[in-house]
Amino acid sequence: VQAGHPLATMLRSTRAWRLPHAGLGLFSPSFTRVPVAPSSSGGRGGAEPRPLLLSYRLLDGEAALPAVVFLHGLFGSKANFNSIAKALAQQTGRRVLTVDARNHGDSPHSPDMSYEIMSQDLQDLLPQLGLAPCVVVGHSMGGKTAMLLALQRSQPPP
């Protein structure tokens, strides 16, 4: 992307999501739990929901640059972002990840469904793919998931 291009300006002004130095677990001193409503599904009788291995598409790019992660809306899937993901990867040289949320597209289905568990799914997936830090872009349900993820894992820039 050329200097002065709106996309270049947007990418420069975004803050990247970074993993805490102390680790990833819920009991990590750097993990902050954000209060959210419990799962509307009733789940498994009070058992803690488990993150799922989500379906995703990763477009290759420069590992030194923060990846861009797209999260779809309620009636969407990772395919909603195919065109923009491809263009962004080609024009910026960044890795671009599109993800199917749980109970959507090709991802597994589960009775557990809440923004907190969708955020946890991503907190497990992103480090497995080596995509931290990253820029998270979400639409509707994906935007709410992205905001919760940012609240739980955001760190100030160095």
UniProtKB/TrEMBL annotation:
SUPFAM superfamilies named in the record: alpha/beta-Hydrolases (SSF53474)
Keywords: Hydrolase
InterPro entries: AB_hydrolase_1 (IPR000073), AB_hydrolase_fold (IPR029058)
EC number: 3.1.1.116
Any single Gene Ontology cellular-component annotation: mitochondrion
Residue ranges occupied by any AB hydrolase-1 domain in the UniProt entry: 66-153
Catalytic activity: 1-octadecanoyl-2-(4Z,7Z,10Z,13Z,16Z,19Z-docosahexaenoyl)-sn-glycerol + H2O = 2-(4Z,7Z,10Z,13Z,16Z,19Z-docosahexaenoyl)-glycerol + octadecanoate + H(+); 1,2-didecanoylglycerol + H2O = decanoylglycerol + decanoate + H(+); a 1,2-diacyl-sn-glycerol + H2O = a 2-acylglycerol + a fatty acid + H(+); a 1,3-diacyl-sn-glycerol + H2O = a 1-acyl-sn-glycerol + a fatty acid + H(+)
Family statement: Belongs to the AB hydrolase superfamily.
Listed PANTHER family: PROTEIN ABHD11
Name under which the protein is recorded: sn-1-specific diacylglycerol lipase ABHD11
Chain's gene name: ABHD11
